[in-house]
Write a structure and sequence with these properties.
This protein is an alpha/beta fold. It folds into three domains: 60 residues; 107 residues; 57 residues, no CATH class. It contains eleven helices and seven strands. Strand 4 and strand 5 form a beta hairpin. The longest helix is centred in the N-terminal third of the chain and has 12 residues.
């Protein structure tokens, strides 16, 4: 959606709150003085040049009037959904919203999250919204609340760590590809076929990993049985 420059201060302020960041942190990443950021966000239009406004919004995850699709956006649900609704209402058209998905998790006793897969003119934008611990008894963000077209449930806490948006989109597909060729296997081994964080409270969601070809799997199993390390196997495949 086209972004009107006069909307930028309020948008930046809302994104800053959603990200849980301070003016000092934004100042360090943009090299704009905190005092200038403060007065600009309160409506002083001439304090920051248009070029720096574009750079600042890019730092906050907005490019070309849309949420960036090359990063995973990490936002907080602190109970007041005004910022969330304002940002999405400004950046996501009604048509794109109807093609967007809210992934809910089953209650787990831990921090709760929803994952938003937002349709854009480019690749889907991915937003992970973590609820504050005090809000675990409150209903989470829903597709109906945001005007999104689809809502889906997953069985475990969404733990994507440092995964790319593209990895997350693939992991959320209902059906994985039935076959991986050798190049795919090399890439899969390099990434560990695992785009999720592993800690005491976090397990991979119930999305099956794509299978590799039967012959290749048998060859790998035989090599492991003969005492060849996985690292050596990967190295050998890369040299083919």
């Amino acid at each position: 959606m086209p972004l009107i420059l006069t909307d930028a201060p309020q948008l930046a302020a809302a994104l800053l709150r959603l990200r849980g960041e301070t003016l000092a942190q934004l100042s360090r990443s943009t090299n704009i003085k905190p005092a200038n950021l403060s007065v600009w966000m309160r409506g002083a239009q001439q304090v920051i040049s248009e070029r720096r406004v574009v750079m600042l919004l890019n730092e906050l995850g907005v490019q070309g009037g849309q949420l960036r699709s090359d990063i995973v956006h990490h936002w907080r649900d602190t109970g007041d959904l005004a910022d969330l609704r304002y940002v999405l209402g400004l950046l996501v058209s009604d048509a794109n919203a109807k093609q967007s998905i809210v992934y809910q998790e089953e209650p787990s006793g831990f921090e709760r999250a929803v994952l938003l897969q937002i349709d854009t003119l480019r690749e889907p934008a991915i937003v992970l919204v973590m609820a504050e611990p005090s809000l675990t008894d409150r209903g989470l963000v829903t597709a109906a609340l945001l005007g999104f077209g689809t809502e889906k449930m997953v069985n475990r806490l969404l733990c994507f760590g440092d995964a790319t948006p593209q990895q997350i989109v693939v992991a959320l597909q209902p059906e994985a590809p039935r076959y991986f060729d050798e190049d795919d296997v090399i890439e899969a081994f390099d990434s560990g076929l695992d785009v999720y964080l592993h800690d005491a409270r976090c397990e991979p969601p119930s999305f099956p990993a794509p299978p590799i070809s039967t012959e290749l799997q048998q060859a790998i199993d035989l090599a492991v049985q003969r005492g060849i390390s996985m690292g050596a196997i990967i190295s050998a495949i890369k040299q083919l």
